[in-house]
Design goal:
single chain, 94 residues, alpha+beta, Ubiquitin-like (UB roll), three-stranded antiparallel sheet, 3 strands, 18% helix, flat
Length: 94
């Protein structure tokens, strides 16, 4: 396993999207090579406009089993929901 390249998680923003989405993973020796390989593997027909690569070892995540304690407290914070704000039509996508 020591001779194996690091694993990179790939996120791509499509031409019509506003955010990046996770599309897969690949092994590469460095971030520059990971971006080039991600372009070749995960984009076709010019649909991508931006690629992010993140080394999998650098990602920390919560456990799905912690869903209750992690997210239930946010239900009491109604100010975090955009129901109290009027957004002008000319603002566009947020």
């Amino acid at each position: 396993m020591k001779n194996e390249w690091p694993l990179w998680e790939i996120f791509i923003r499509g031409q019509h999207g506003m955010s990046h989405r996770h599309v897969g993973s690949l092994h590469a020796p460095d971030s520059e090579t990971a971006i080039k390989n991600a372009r070749d593997v995960y984009t076709r027909r010019n649909e991508g406009v931006s690629i992010w690569v993140v080394e999998a070892n650098d990602i920390s995540a919560s456990s799905p089993g912690d869903k209750g304690p992690m997210f239930e407290p946010s239900e009491s914070k109604v100010y975090r929901h955009p129901t109290f704000y009027d957004i002008p039509d000319d603002v566009g996508a947020m």
